[in-house]
Amino acid sequence: MENRIDLSVRLLAQRLLEKDFGDIPERERRVIERVAKRIAISRDTYMDHETTLTFGDRLADQVASFGGSWKFLILFGVFIAVWVLLNSVMLVAGFDPYPYILLNLFMSMLASIQAPVIMMSQNRQAVKDRLAAAHDYEVNLKAEIEIMALHEKLDEMRAKDLTELLRHVQSTKA
Asked: For residue 117, what are the CA distances in angstroms to 31, 54, 106?
């Protein structure tokens, strides 16, 4: 049984992709094998990626998600306004008088920590996008191969029907 499937995989690769099975890349081989065995190729790439994330990866994603939100911007704006009010208006001798050097230091420290964390999250998102694109390619290739196989079957059926029609016409003329 396995030899028959292996032979059908090789023939399918030669017929549809016009390449020898050994000459096609590994990803395309997997697709051809799944077509020949009639196995689904779809899978949840999101879940595949999520299972490989570490605690640090998930934490970086949450920090990046919060740091790039309106909630963060509004809270940070309120924090700065309160800081300025406390140090300029409410307190006669504020602990961080104008030009707010301590506030500037805190903002610089936040930016220096937040930027690499956001970049780590973006890099992970890029990896996730590449995985999804590779999976989309495999699904599209399988669909294309299936359509090509259907076209072959339709062409065979048309040729058979045409042959039978010609035989029928010839037999009626004779």
From this structure: 37, 14, 17
